[in-house]
């Protein structure tokens, strides 16, 4: 799967080069690249084709349970998921320990903890959302890890998101990227933006609201 992922990412990034200039001028970008052509690894260590989410609006977010704003942000993400899931909306959550080491738990612990709190949105394996900084599986769940280093798990997805918004920097936990039904990343939000603040954008891309989008803070 890793070889196929790299090949797909190379193709997608090549396509994105043609519109990179536009992404530097606006935070609400119309790209011709679909992130749904990539694969991911879920919280159980199972490969997932993101194509299963094609036709749905998705919010990609890096989460950390020890972040000071975790409880509020996770609750808001779950509220949005429950409110709009049957209208075609997904929250795709990627635990990450890269910012302040605020996600030290294993995938197994995370799944049980978040499900016990009735957070129902899809969970993915602990992931690298910025460039990898480690070469071992220290602090990761080896059973659910994939490849030589769990630090590289799902990094291709976030590499593409960072590339599409070349002026954006993922600075902390709970950075968010909104993806349209056709897989185009269309909006990025800094960690300082709470999930409920982007509800209008979600509604707009679901076709439920025609009001202008909120400007990205990334």
Structure, described:
The chain has 218 residues and is an alpha+beta fold. It has a single domain, classed as Glutaredoxin (3-Layer(aba) Sandwich). It is 30% helix and 13% strand. The strands form two sheets. A four-stranded mixed β-sheet has the order 4-3-5-6, with helices on one face. Strands 1-2 form a two-stranded antiparallel sheet. Helix 1 packs parallel to helix 5.
CATH architectural group: 3-Layer(aba) Sandwich
CATH class, anyone?
Alpha Beta
Question: β content, as a range?
Answer: 5-15%
Instruction: Give me the number of helical elements.
Output: 6
The largest sheet is:
4 strands, mixed
Instruction: Give the quaternary arrangement of the chains.
Output: single chain
Rounded to an integer in angstroms, the radius of gyration calculated over CA atoms is 16 Å
The domain tally reads 1
Structural class: alpha+beta
End-to-end Cα distance, whole Å, is 31 Å
Based on DSSP secondary structure assignment, what is the total number of beta strands?
A: 6
Order of helices and strands: HHEEEHEHHEEH
Give the helix proportion (percent range).
Answer: 25-40%
The CATH superfamily turns out to be Glutaredoxin
The mean pLDDT is 81
As residue ranges, the low-confidence spans are 9-31, 137-149
Across the major sheet, the strand order is 4-3-5-6
Bulk shape: globular
CATH topology (fold) name: Glutaredoxin
Task: Break the fold down into its secondary structure elements and pairings.
Blueprint: H1 2-17, H2 20-25, E1 39-41, E2 47-49, E3 57-63, H3 70-84, E4 89-95, H4 107-116, H5 155-164, E5 176-179, E6 185-189, H6 199-206
Parallel strand pairs: 3-4
Antiparallel strand pairs: 1-2, 3-5, 5-6
């Amino acid at each position: 799967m890793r070889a196929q992922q790299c090949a797909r990412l190379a193709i997608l990034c090549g396509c994105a080069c043609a519109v990179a200039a536009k992404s530097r001028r606006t935070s609400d970008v119309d790209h011709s690249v679909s992130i749904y052509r990539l694969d991911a690894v879920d919280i159980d260590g199972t490969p997932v084709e993101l194509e299963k989410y094609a036709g749905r609006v998705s919010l990609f977010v890096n989460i950390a349970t020890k972040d000071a704003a975790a409880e509020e942000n996770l609750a808001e993400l779950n509220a949005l998921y429950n409110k709009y899931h049957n209208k075609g909306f997904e929250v795709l959550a990627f635990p990450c320990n890269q910012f302040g080491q605020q996600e030290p738990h294993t995938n197994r612990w995370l799944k049980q903890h978040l499900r016990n709190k009735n957070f129902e949105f899809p969970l993915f394996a602990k992931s690298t959302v910025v460039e990898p900084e480690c070469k071992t599986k220290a602090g990761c769940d080896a059973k659910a890890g994939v490849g030589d280093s769990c630090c590289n798990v799902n990094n291709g997805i976030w590499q593409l998101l960072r590339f599409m918004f070349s002026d954006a920097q993922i600075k902390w936990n709970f950075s968010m990227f909104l993806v349209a039904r056709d897989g185009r990343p269309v909006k990025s939000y800094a960690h300082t933006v709470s999930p409920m603040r982007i509800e209008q954008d979600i509604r707009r891309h679901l076709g439920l609201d025609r009001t202008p989008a909120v400007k990205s803070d990334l």
